[in-house]
Amino acid sequence: MKRSINLLLLPALLSAFIGTSAAQTKTSDNSNQPKVIETFSVGDNVYVRALTMEPRTGSLWVGTSAGVHEIEVATGKPRNTFTRNSGLANEYVFAVGIDKDGYKWFGTNAGGVSRYKDGKWKTFFPMHGLADYWVYSFGNQKNGDLWIGTWAGVNVVDLKTLKFRTYVKELINEWVYGIDVDKQDRVWFGTEGGVSMFDGKTWKSWTHKDGLGAVNEKKLLTSPNTGLGTRSRHDLGFRSEDGSATYNPNYVFSILAAQDQTIWAGTWGGGVAHFDGKKWTNYTVKDGLAGDIVYSMVQDSKGSFWFGTNGGVTRYDGKTWSSVDNRTGLLDNNVYALAIAPNGDIWAGTKRGVAHLAQPKGK
Questions:
Q1: Which of 56, 107, 149, 152 has the fewest Cβ atoms surrounding its Cβ within 10 A?
Q2: Would the pTM of this model clear 0.85, i.e. be above it?
Q3: Interatomic CA distance for residues 310 and 238, integer angstroms
């Protein structure tokens, strides 16, 4: 079943990720297979970069390269569509955060952060304390402090005063794509140079030398894209000039603090890395991932992990792996965002739209 969301289509402001064919995956029986039950189109040249569920209102917030939508999850109907004309600083939305007071924070590409609630907007730029105009992730601590990941370090915002504090040199790399907070209230950061963690007092970091990211068994070209010196033109494509895939295991697109307090990191070409507090274990297409570039991750209430990759969506229940791709219902194989609905269903954001996936009937 396909539904269509109407929106104003605008030119893309950032070069998009280049697609890839679906990787071979190890699958279990059909009872463990995720299933795409419907899709929602946002336009052929529009990318869905962020998905954030708001259980209190029953809304799914969809950040795209042409604006942001609020969708009623129960019906799939759009409640709101926001562009610059509405109050967004920039239509290209890479991250959507929701703070403890219900404010929505939209991280944009080159437009800073726009905050929204009840029809009122406020935008923050570096002149207000924001680390950079390019904003890619959010995270909430127990005391309500909001963390913001940018291309020039991270901010932590005191929501009472709206004062911004910035960290740059403490990180392994200033280009921050993923943020998550574990049960100990430690903040984890996925960057272009590895993983960093802040426990409130001290900082620690890990790189490929520490075991982060699988070895380059396919002998892929190492991507030269580190971000350094390329702020005016930062290439997010993962293919080399001749079209072949590249490898950069220190480049972490996504980070997840699991229910058991272990950490998962999605890398560029090195698969997904699992940190138990002492060592890293890496999983790739050889184990069952749909693709070795892992853009997004979530864990459902049953404890199963869902990975958005360059080859589709993969579910891992701790024993078996199963995947869906564009041959089985996805609009595109590059899955940049994932979110879990209150009923346990999974929503996946790709180029051209959003897919609604049902939980497997099995375990």
A1: 56
A2: yes
A3: 10
